[in-house]
């Protein structure tokens, strides 16, 4: 039996194509994936991402627990700020990438990936035992909608009680949208301007319908996980289980900037050792030179030698190129390095390029 979000019936009413996504029945496409992709780039799209997990960490040791669990320091983090970070295991491998929402020195919300939610929660509870802190998994109570695109602010402002221009990127406020109190942050997984809305499941259909109503004149359409994947790939954003996992460290991925070596955290010593000894591989972006689409887990070659693996790959509707990401031997990480992707029995030329492929 697949898990479902509070908007499952709405998606089916809209004739979305539903798929099994990590044990959740989720919409992959409503009408046409390229149409949905382009709507986000040019107007706006709305995504139901309620399958993601949310934890509340509260109590006098909340700060200390998060400092131990997360690679990025939250020292000096202001109330209302959102940080991107990772959980590492003792070997420096990435357990998950997540965002931290600071409500106060003793109250934080962590937003984690859907497929890793049970393990992430167990990890947090295990390490919370020695602290005066409460860790609560509130995922089942929360609907999360992402409203993304250049028209996102115009649309949401119509039903907001707060001037949304006051919410800067990677900040949040607790406000009312069409009378419903909720957390609204400004970031996104698409490379566009946009907002994340967290609110009670009981208001799911009401808020979805209202946003669709006020957004329709601005070109808003519902978007599935297919468009979400091409959008995030174009802006070089990683997908857990593909581009990052326990077999790779944040230094090998493009998460070196969320590692704070000036504080203690789980996995620090392993990452310090890796940095001191030098990296052996690195996640890079690439464009196909010859015809072909690279997919996970096609092998990557250089001068006839296997040197890495494709982690994500797709045609890019915005750039018109076939693009991808993958790990390569560290000395091959520089832009314009020519590589070969083995697609079935053929070696297809590609070149390393600087991430992201698309930037607003």
Give an overview in words.
By secondary structure, this protein is an alpha+beta fold. The chain folds into three domains: 8-49 and 141-234, Gyrase A, domain 2 (2-Layer Sandwich); 53-139, Alpha-Beta Plaits (2-Layer Sandwich), CATH 3.30.70; 280-353, Aminomethyltransferase beta-barrel domains (Elongation Factor Tu (Ef-tu), domain 3), CATH 2.40.30.110. Helices cover 21% and strands 34% of the residues. The protein is built from eight helices and 19 strands. The protein has helices at 8-13, 33-42, 62-69, 117-128, 152-157, 204-215, 225-234, 268-277; strands spanning 17-21, 24-29, 44-48, 53-58, 82-88, 94-104, 107-112, 134-137, 142-148, 172-177, 180-185, 194-200, 220-222, 281-288, 299-302, 305-315, 322-329, 338-343, 346-353. The strands form four sheets. A six-stranded mixed beta sheet has the order 10-11-12-9-3-13, with helices on both faces. The chain has a six-stranded antiparallel beta barrel with strand order 14-17-16-15-18-19. A hairpin with an 8-residue loop joins strand 11 (180-185) and strand 12 (194-200). Helix 2 (33-42) packs across helix 7 (225-234). The longest helix is centred in the middle third of the chain and has 12 residues, at 117-128. The two termini are 40 Å apart.
Rg computed from alpha carbons, rounded to a whole number of angstroms: 21 Å
Average of pLDDT = 98
Instruction: Please outline the major beta sheet.
Output: 6 strands, mixed
Task: Look at the structure and name the CATH superfamily of the largest domain.
Answer: Probable tRNA modification gtpase trme, domain 1
CATH topology of the largest domain: Gyrase A, domain 2
The spatial strand order of the largest sheet comes to: 10-11-12-9-3-13
Q: Total domains, how many?
A: 3
The gross shape turns out to be globular
**Total helical elements:** 8
As a percent range, the share of helical residues equals: 10-25%
DSSP, total strands? 19
Stretches where pLDDT is under 50 for at least 5 consecutive residues are none
